[in-house]
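Your task:
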Amino acid sequence: MGRQAVAGWLFVTPFTILLVAFLLLPMAYAAKLSLYRSTLVEGEVFAWLDNYGQALGDPQFRQGVLRVIIFGLVQTPIMVGLALVFALLIDEAMSRLSRFFRLAAFVPYAVPAVIGTLMWGFLYSPRTGLFNSVAGLELMSSNLVLLSLGNVVTWQWAGYNMIVLYAALQGLPRDVYESARIDGAGPVQIALRIKTPMISAAIVLVTIFTIIGTLQFFTEPLILQPLNPGAITNSYTPNLYAYHQAFSYQQYNYSAAISFLLGAVVFVGSYIFLFATRRRNALR
């Protein structure tokens, strides 16, 4: 037992070192920064929760949080729904083409987010973009910019969610499908009444990932901001606001407080969804 314990700790140690060095220590340092305030006369002074109170009263921060919440409420069902539909279709198509479709759906996720956003930025460009020159749509206007960002996010992440759901479908027993077909169930009924309920745990998992990702919205608006700075402002999302507060205005303490408040919003949103799904399953 002693040797097994030592071997177990040896396997866990590299991950523990990386976790402490690149997550826990930076979070502890950021938490310390959020409790201080930089002044010209006294330097760093202990401010307790003043930075958090300032952030809660900041209208730009509140508008950014409200924007990403609305974005998540719209984006999450669309992304998870598309991933589920694609996974069900590929699972039903038992042919060589299923491998091609899996790869085609997963390729956007393999493309780095910055590169993918730059590609869509060329298509969205008001001067040379395909959508503006052919269809006459200004997708980077103030009215359509959130829709354009949602399209980029869906293109990048729907394939990842689809692979997770498809893997869950592959683990289901095929005998259940045969029994349903003998009883007269069609492909749609099998997909909706058998497959989907049996992978509910995987659906909850990808939904949680999607909620966390949408509330931490950062890369896409940052890359596309130069196309229309008036539509994508420095406070468009909380992460973008914290970034500009830290690296444009050197307000590191205030930026750390904003980051922890955003983390609280992510935690509350994820917990509410988990509580709602758990209660629904209990009622069933």
